[in-house]
Design a protein that fits this description.
Layout lengths: L2 E6 L1 H11 L5 E6 L6 H10 L5 H10 L4 H8 L12 H13 L2 H11 L5 E4 L6 E6 L4 E3 L1 H6 L7 E7 L6 H8 L3 E4 L4 H9 L4 H7 L3 E5 L14 H12 L6 E5 L5 H7 L16 E4 L2 E3 L15 E3 L1 H12 L3
Parallel strand pairs: 1-2, 1-7, 2-3, 7-8, 8-9, 9-10
Antiparallel strand pairs: 4-5, 4-6, 11-12
Helix pairs in contact: 1-3, 1-13, 5-6, 8-10, 9-11
């Protein structure tokens, strides 16, 4: 059985894991602990717990429990004092308080959901992601970085504060993997933060595993405006220390024009600009559907995304060659 390790944040990891779960693989999701938005951010600030949101998504992706249980973990309260909170986030945070250990809470929820594989936080230290822009402005937290429109004007540094200790179990998983998958996910908010944890980049440089980069479908205006696939690779290489990628998976599918237009304010598709590079796998990876608000406007949320089945087929093609 091949051992596959995924690295990233919640939504990207969720997509990869959801597809690969159908196959006979030893799966481990290693999750960034920099999230501080939404329900997760409130729980961090008010309870002092580690961020549960991205971990919850990975647990649900790997779950072999009933659809009802998966829906329960993702249920978001709409009003009242719990409005905006996700049940799964509350469960993980409550278990962390009861057990005194975030890792134990993840293990217990893993049992409840009968997950296929493991979910590991990259660190069990409280950390905040920070960025100093070239103009001297400081962005505090993943949420501020994710929503910024100034990053592509240049930044001096991006770092985690305080400096966290890496989860050694995560390093062991990377070192013993057959395949490591980085991405998809926000470049500055999901992928780079996991590389900032000391020991992760070294493990990626030294592991004998094949390493795959799954590039994002869309750029973010003001952050990766005009980035081609090679620009994403170059940026990650700065933090890994060298080009460690054996494969780069890039979408070449084209969504309907009206959907691209709906996204125009947020960013454009990431395009393949590699010439004669044998590492490149360029294929249609899109899953998209058209929705409308009552007023007829297109809903932009989660319209253009990776198709988990298509992505899994590409990754299995690599795995079967190992």
């Amino acid at each position: 059985m091949k051992k596959v390790v995924t690295l990233g944040g919640g939504t990207g990891n969720f997509t990869v894991l959801r597809g690969l779960k159908k196959y006979n693989l030893d799966l481990t999701a290693i999750v960034s602990m920099a999230d501080d938005g939404g329900s997760t951010g409130i729980l961090r600030d008010e309870l002092g717990v580690l961020p549960p949101g991205d971990v919850r998504q990975c647990l649900v992706a790997l779950s072999d429990s009933s659809k009802l249980m998966r829906n329960l973990m993702n249920y978001r309260f709409e009003n009242g004092s719990l409005g905006g909170h996700n049940f799964g986030n509350l469960l993980l945070s409550a278990l962390e308080k009861v057990t005194g250990s975030f890792e134990t809470s993840v293990e217990e929820v893993s049992k409840i959901l009968s997950i296929k594989g493991k979910v590991l936080p990259i660190t069990i230290n409280q950390v905040r992601l920070k960025m100093i822009l070239d103009n001297g402005k400081i962005l505090n937290g993943e949420k501020e970085i994710y929503t910024s429109t100034e990053i592509d004007n240049g930044f001096r540094s991006i770092f985690l504060e305080p400096i966290p200790k890496v989860n050694l179990r995560a390093i062991d998983e990377i070192m013993n993997a057959d395949l490591v998958v980085l991405g998809p996910g926000g470049l500055h908010s999901s992928l780079i933060p996991i590389l900032l944890v000391e020991g992760v980049s070294k493990a990626l440089r030294e592991t004998k595993a094949e390493i795959v980069l799954v590039t994002n479908l869309m750029n973010r205006k003001g952050q990766t405006t005009g980035f081609k696939a090679s620009d994403h690779l170059k940026e990650l290489r700065k933090f890994v220390g060298k080009d460690v990628f054996d494969y780069v998976v890039i979408n070449d599918g084209e969504p309907p024009g009206d959907l691209v237009e709906a996204y125009a304010e947020e960013g454009k598709l990431v395009r393949n600009d590699f010439d004669d590079d044998e590492r490149i796998i360029c294929t249609d990876l899109l899953s998209y559907k058209l929705k409308e608000r009552e007023n007829g406007d297109l809903l932009k949320r989660n319209l253009i995304r990776h198709d988990h089945k298509k992505l899994a087929q590409v990754l299995m093609g690599i795995i079967n060659e190992l």
